[in-house]
Amino acid sequence: MGGINLRFQEIKEQEQQYIMHTYGRVDVSLVKGENARAWDAQGKEYIDFTSGIGVNCLGYSDPQWSAAVARQAQTIQHICNYYYSPENTALAQELCEAAGMAQAFFCNSGAEANECAVKIARKYGEPRGAYRIVTLTNSFHGRTLTTLAATGQEVFHKDFLPLTEGFLYAEAGDLTGIEKLLDSSVCGVLMETVQGEGGVVPMEPDFVRGLRSLCDKKNVLLMMDEVQTGVGRTGCFYSYQGMGVQPDVVTSAKGLAGGLPIGACLVGEKLRNILKPGQQGSTFGGNPVVCAGAREVVRRVSQPDFLRKVTEKAAYFRQRLEALPQVEFIRGQGLMLGIQLKTGNAHDVLIQCAEQGLLVLTAKELVRFLPPLTITQEEIDQGLAIFAKVLQEVNEK
To answer: Is pLDDT at 3 greater than 50 in this prediction?
Structure first.
């Protein structure tokens, strides 16, 4: 037992010495997983309500997904984007059809996808001198200098000024205020339908539909950041599909390849071929192994029966959480839930949950759940039993 514990200490010491300290880590070292269960370096079992911050949408080590990725890795693992890749082209078609969009650009992350969206909006507005983009206060769009500038939270801007210019911030729900900002210098509006890092704050459907009409009126692109909300997370393949809205640009990442790094920027028909050769690129974007994983995800998650089950699981989660006396309210959509506690600190609860075998997230002052879309009722029950126990212990202190 001492040797196993020493191994974890060795891992932790390696991290401290050789990795930049950009993450506030928890004392857990995961080495194996199966659906919503994971095991650490000591063999301790956890129920995982994080899915890698919404990435492992099919859970850990899904057999069909793993087989698709392994087959492709054994066939050809990477090619230069000078050449055609059937996995790349097939994914583009399947994803565009599922999203109701026309063309895709593939990269490696949500921030890169949002960078591409910014470039598309500026290219669209360039003939009339429009370059500004409106985003919402409390939003989060990435950690590159440009996507930090797009993020409507000053706490992320500190220490990295000056940021990329050309971003304006508006309050969610305030169509009148946004309309005042949409002068001839604005080329696009970028928004999340649920502000994940901002505290799991959902937008009202009437606001989103009103914004669509406003963008049409002002000849401004409506761009949806679906990095966290997309690929089945809210119970629709993309969340805008549940609001009766079709955006001009969609960005996607996180769960899209089921655990492999991918980002995608999708455009509608009016933006077809807006970018020319040499105006955008990514060495690893559209990698065939990643695309094989993503094709398995899109094929399964886009099925109506799969999405129906996500909605049912989300309703079950809410019902169980609402019965806990320590819960003030629940916010979010689908399997993207934020829990405000009556007492206790969310980060402290996160640490105590991990100690007792449950992995959760936080978003500002809320505890946040982003479980795999394939989580079973047994796994939900087991995880919520730990959560209820932790909340009771916090309340008794």
So the answer is: no
Quick: pLDDT tens for 233-265. 999 999 999 999 999 999 999 999 999 999 999
Label each residue of the chain as H, E or C. Answer: CHHHHHHHHHHHHHHHHHCCCCCCCCCCCEEEEEECEEEECCCCEEEECCHHHHCCCCCECCHHHHHHHHHHHHHCCCCCCCCCCHHHHHHHHHHHHHHCCCEEEEECCHHHHHHHHHHHHHHHHHHHCCCEEEEEECCCCCCCHHHHHHCECHHHHCCCCCCCCCEEEECCCCHHHHHHHCCCCEEEEEECCEECCCCCEECCHHHHHHHHHHHHHHCCEEEEECCCCCCCCCCCCCHHHHCCCCCCEEEECHHHHCCCCCEEEEECHHHCCCCCCCCCCCCCCCCHHHHHHHHHHHHHHCCHHHHHHHHHHHHHHHHHHHCCCCEEEEEEECCEEEEEECCCCHHHHHHHHHHCCEECEEECCEEEECCCCCCCHHHHHHHHHHHHHHHHHHHHC
> How many CB atoms lie under 10 A from the CB of residue 306?
16
Confidence of residue 6 (pLDDT cuts 50, 70, 90): low
For the chain, give the mean pLDDT.
Answer: 96
Residues 115 and 144 sit within 8 Å (Cβ to Cβ): yes
* Cα–Cα dist 322/295, whole Å: 36
- For the stretch 30-54, pLDDT in tens is 999 999 999 998 899 999 999 999 9
The token pair that represents 5 in the structure block = 């514990």
Cis peptide, bond prior to residue 162, ω within 30 of zero: yes
Q: What does the pLDDT look like over 98-122, one tens digit per residue?
A: 999 999 999 999 999 999 999 999 9
- Closest by CA to 365, choosing from 388, 339, 335, is 339
